[in-house]
Amino acid sequence: MTNTEKEIQDILTRDFQPQLLEIIDESHLHAGHMGAVEGVSTHFRVKIVSEKFEGVPKIKQHKLVYKALEEQLNGDVHALALNTIKKSKWEA
Questions:
Q1: pTM attached to this predicted model
Q2: Could you state, in order of their start, the residue ranges of all structural domains in the chain?
């Protein structure tokens, strides 16, 4: 696990108390693309299930995650693909 991946995990765990949190470093898939930096984790895919998303529209769920990871998104993280899921939908 990279330092950036650990930061993302720690922040999302703290802010969303997720029932499920998957973080996939996809940086290797973007080698040579804009925003990719060799040896630096820059592209991530996140799947997160949380009660915090209940009653919140999908776009606002994503905004909540982007806000929580603002420092990382202004730093090394170039791309963040999100799959946010309400706990009630995940258990259904």
A1: 0.86
A2: 3-91
